[in-house]
Amino acid sequence: MQPFSGLSLLRRGLSGQRGWTQQWRRAQPKAAYDAVIVGGGGHGLGAAYYLAREHGLTNVAVLEKSWIGGGNTGRNTTIIRSNYLFDESAALYDHAVKLWEDLSQVLNYNVMFSQRGVLMLAHTVHDVQVFKRHVHANRASGVDNEWLTPAEAKAFCPPLNIGDIRYPVLGAALQRRGGTARHDAVAWGYARAADALGVDIIENCEVTGIQRGSNGAVEAVETTRGLIRTPKVGVAAAGHTSVVMKMAGVQLPLESYPLQALVSEPVKPIFPCVVMSNTIHAYISQSDKGELVIGAGTDAYTSYTQRGGLHISRHALEAICELFPMFRRLRMLRNWGGIVDVTPDRSPIIAKTPVPGLYVNCGWGTGGFKATPGSAHVFAFTIARDEPHPINAPFTIERFRDGHLIDEAAAAAVAH
Fold this sequence. Notes:
globular; 8-stranded mixed beta sheet; 28% helix; 22% strand; alpha/beta
């Protein structure tokens, strides 16, 4: 697709959308595909794109029960980082960061990736010890992370209040390569690029069943738009993964919780980075539209609703007002919720399942968006080759049986 000139773009923008072409086809489901991806978020669309681009599988369908990007991809706070504790996690998330860095050029679609830095605050002696351990572990595995004194944290983020609060800032871990991206653009960019390679993107198509043959392997998916035959099904359905997998007789160690976020009225650029606090329990950045994007923690109770308890948002705002007193008079525009699926060790599952031809990408908790390109890339490899990529090889279902856990509860930076 050739870029528009400034004058051409202005003319098109004032034309009432006349002459604009659809970004992807409104595909009708075919009777059969070589592979079907369940879930039209970033992970599912990205997997379909890499299946087509890197593995030559173009007879692929992405099935989305609502609209593209209507799930967690469009319902998150867009934070990107790779400063996780264990080598397995650091490799996976840093693989994603490296793909983020040139994703706009690869997709020919501006995903607005901004490496503005992610600052993770320490408020207690325990926080200091944990974050310093992360810094040393990251450096040993080749991932950037550095420790800042309170004064250095204040210099990096001038609005930060480091002293006159209930939990004074004792220091911070900073990953300068971290940042944010535009969540909608990520979904749209992958959708358009996958469609251009021949992938069918089918919206308003809910999967209602998974058929297995006499040998136990996947044969077809039942949908609200008819039966679709396929020998390979990749499930990337975020908070509803356990529901879809149960259709094939597979139980997963997942719990689904609402996770809330909210945005303020827009203001001029004032916030230079992303700040996260686990102890005070909130995180914040500023969007390209000037809104302050504020994230809260998960609700205490499992649910499949895309909303949560009001007190969770209130607690997050109280924390932000402590950390950044200058924002106390800002009004909130809206809030929303997504559904996160959480594993016992707070690390994802990207793996083959006991059912031949069935693959799953789930369990991301609060960290799914940041992993989007890396997760999609290795998931496509696993589906195409029926074996894990070296990066996602540790993230099996069997690790919960065998005890090979990857415990990243502390690195999540927001309590689950």
